[in-house]
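Table S4 entry, ABC3 transporter permease protein domain-containing protein.
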Amino acid sequence: MFKHNLLIIYRNFKRFKSTFFINLLGLSTGMACALLIFLWVNDELSIDKFHENDEQLYQVYLHHDEKGEIRSAPPVPALLADVLEVERPEVLRAVEDTDTNEFGDSFSLAIGEDKMKARGKFSGQEYFQLFSFPFLKGNAETALADKSGIVLTESLAQKLFGTTDVIGKSLEWQILKFKGQAQVSAVIHDLPSNSTESFEFILPFSVFIDDLMGKERNHWGNYIALTYVQLAEGTDVPQLNEEIAPLIKNKVEWSNVEPFVKQYSSRYLHGKFENGKEAGGRITYVRLFGIIALFVLSIACINFMNLSTARAAGRLKEIGVKKTLGANRKQLIIQHLGESVAMTIISLIVAYLLVLLLLPQFNAITDKSLSLQLSPNLLIATAGITLFTGLLAGSYPALYLSGFKLVSILKGKLTTSTGELWTRKGLVVFQFVISIVLLVSVWVVYKQIEYVQNKNLGYERQQVVKIPIEGEVANRLELFIDRLKAVPGVVNASATTHSIVKSGASTTGVTWQGKDPDSNILFEQARAYYGLIETLGIEMKEGRSFSNEYGAEEDKIIFNEAAIKVMGLEDPIGKTVTMWGKEKQIIGVVKDFHFSSLHEEVSPMLFHFDISFMLSIFAKIQANSTEETLAGIQALYKDFNPGFTLNYEFLDVNYQAQYQAEQKVSLLSRYFAGIAIIISCLGLFGLAAFTAERRQKEIGIRKILGAGGLQIMKLLSADFTKMVFIAIIIALPISFWATQNWLQGFAYSIEPEWWYFAGAGLIAIVIAWITISFQTIKAMRLNPAETLKDE
């Protein structure tokens, strides 16, 4: 029977060639989409999951209580790690760390006269006992035990020394104006692609506290570290969070923060908080694309169902003969399910070829390095997709075809029931509902990204170059900025610790007269040099900015409007506040500007004059001489730092980088929406062809009786048009809810216009008409004599 069924399957594929190729194209395209999305989702779910201690590895966060609003963030006091390890028996290890992105590429390493930039950070002694980065040389216990040690990645060791056999070799490191000697204590393998860490070397955390920050800044009110902990197996995490919440408040009465732990590997997908509660993150996009994969597959399956049931009349004799010879319904169901699974397997082979062809472009869009390797996960996913698609696509046709009554078959009468018609129409409506929802979603995402790109942020980000402060530039910062201003094409220049495009350092160490003793406001804080506000085009609301015309400015401070509002100060200019124990006079208030993502509202911010620890120089340059100006800046930079390479960045590019996830979602959504519509139209095309073929005699008679082309077109397209209109009516409220839900993730967003939804509906109906028109025009051109010659 198996051999017989295979022969029947082959003959049916050969007999109904157009149906076969439509199903093959639809199913293979849908499965290719599903496979690509699976590869992407699987990679997203694997991020940071490779550590041996994954189940027990947690990061410490802080809840900041800001007048009833809870803000959650990972920077914590550097003192916290030791306290947790000593006071909490559930904490087996606790380690301090710094964010690699805080210093970027500002580090330089030197061996003699040879200098090289590299990405580095500072970590506590037990870092490699928590995190599973395999060692090539050295071991996890001693790698960061010595303050003079340094751990290199394999590729960095090769760049510096030409070999990985480098234990004990010396080099000099520098960050800003701080320098030190170090000996290589270990070499680790390069970090895997599914790691959120991106360092090339690590120095001991004690160097950061003792040499860079200074021990006087290591206190409970300074959130300068990241802290990771390894918990004992079986730890009740919610109970632990409840017990450690008052820990910092018990150390300092004025504190408004409560620590809590969150699984390290969950940060990537679940990194967003709203008022102290987890509120999603990238997991939203993982779920979104999972749903899209399911929808695209469903649309392809619906095509198969509709075309198979529509072609049922052509298989009456086969089914009748089998029933006459004793075949029962179960056997017929198995045969037709086998047919759909065979169709799916053929489609899977084509889908694999499509994936191999499209994967390089898909990797370029998603910025990943995905590959189609036959891993257990991929094999299970492939088998699951194949069975799901085959059984779903074949279920309704199998039940429908096997349900024909023998008497009706032998009489040659196949009655089309009302339920069958409504089922077929309902499936077409469902296809177009999905397509219209995707169309609206794509348009709203596109308009939101456009809004983000063009919104007035309160500062000028165009033609602003960001230059890292390193080497001799750090030692002679004021001279470098003065000479930088003299470079032709440079309009202005200044320096700061802040990136301007995303949140950075913050502090609660500000007090003022009339401050509520029970309230601790978290201020975003930026060290600033003369002319920073003018260079960035930030508008002053009142007062002035820092200027060398007024002499020393170390005892001056500038706030934004949000800070003045939350402080409750009236006529703030000239008033005095205390910051970190030192009095500072308010000399200016800047208008609120967006110094972080538009996902967040503008929060309180301050600028204070301090050139002892600067990270970046910002230079505003003229638009009409960009190339010449950059060449002049590079020449000046080489004068100060011979042997260094200047890695400058444009501020507007850094700003756009914040929205890479949304931009990728926007682009991928466009592709998947297009594919969904194409697959839907394939099914519509097949049904229109079948309808035209079935009604050839009717069309011939109507033409003889004087029916014109428009009447024939109306006859054939009326039902399909009604189905698409019903789909539009159903899809619009769904798409409105979905897009509003997504836009809630932005503090500043567009208001969807009515024509977004009307436009999507219009596009859907036009595409449907174009698809149907091919068959209606073909039917209109038929010669009635040909269609009626057998009558």
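The longest helix spans residues 329-366.
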